[in-house]
Design a protein that fits this description.
71% of the residues lie in helices and 0% in strands. It is an all-alpha fold and 272 residues long.
């Protein structure tokens, strides 16, 4: 039987090993949040089905029926849902990770464990919603008799990129939210704004070429475009420059989030 001895100054040197040693806590926190989200609601897991479908219906109405944007020969509901998948995954994971430390304040102030586990588990819960949405998309493609292309093999890579973007931004906001509680009001605004400045209800091809680089500074642009390219394939453009910018910004965001989180982590128990 292994005994864990915590002494002053020892935990820093074993931090990354402790992330693996406390993996069961990660599983427990993720499973707990999943149960709370679905078991203790009126319609349970159906909420994970209705929410993306209702959002898709609104976006299809706005961008297809009212704005009459092109769909490149793809059924517009599939076009929108393929972009909605990564966006909702990012938005849900980012929001939950940003408030995760405050929600688990009592645990943080009482026991030692790598605090990085808490926002990480929140992103994992968001990934479960993402997997449910993948099943919904598969059903929609069967309904419209729309087969994915061979590009689908690249989907896990874009999912990993979305996971990194959600985790990096979530770590930054989670650490800031401990000290500056007004960040909880900023996050919903950022998420709402991001729905319309990201190519969720439309493709990036409608953005004029002279504005494409500036538009691609939103790291979700390359990720969403990549999802559409992987799922739909034909008729969907994957701009290599936008993808490279997204990869670079997402990597920078993840590194910055980890560094800032680790720098401020030792004060969480005192401030929270």
């Amino acid at each position: 039987m292994t005994t864990l001895v915590i002494e002053p100054g020892r935990t820093e040197g074993h931090y990354w090993k402790d992330l693996w040693r406390y993996r069961e806590l990660l599983v427990f926190l993720s499973w707990r949040d999943i149960l709370v989200r679905y078991k203790q609601t009126l319609i349970g897991i159906m909420w994970a089905v209705l929410r993306p479908l209702l959002t898709m219906a609104v976006l299809v109405l706005v961008f297809s029926k009212l704005a009459r944007l092109p769909s490149n020969g793809v059924p517009y509901p599939i076009l929108v849902f393929a972009g909605l998948l990564p966006w909702q995954f990012f938005a849900n994971a980012f929001t939950e990770a940003g408030s995760s430390l405050i929600a688990n304040a009592s645990m943080i102030s009482k026991i030692y464990f790598p605090r990085l586990i808490i926002p990480f588990s929140a992103v994992v819960v968001g990934f479960v919603d993402f997997l449910i949405s993948i099943v919904i998309l598969a059903g929609m493609m069967l309904w419209y008799r729309f087969a994915p292309s061979w590009h689908i093999v690249a989907l896990p890579l874009f999912a990993l990129l979305g996971f990194a973007a959600a985790l990096g931004s979530g770590l930054c906001v989670a650490a800031l939210n401990v000290k500056y509680r007004d960040f909880r009001y900023i996050v919903p605004f950022v998420v709402q704004l991001g729905t319309y400045v990201s190519p969720v209800g439309f493709t990036s091809s409608i953005v004029p070429p002279q504005w494409r680089t500036l538009y691609s500074l939103n790291p979700l642009v390359g990720i969403i475009d990549g999802f559409r390219w992987a799922i739909i394939g034909r008729g969907i453009e994957l701009n290599s420059a936008s993808l490279l910018i997204s990869v670079g910004l997402t990597s920078l965001l993840l590194i910055t989030g980890i560094v800032y989180f680790r720098k401020t982590e030792r004060t969480f128990a005192d401030v929270i």
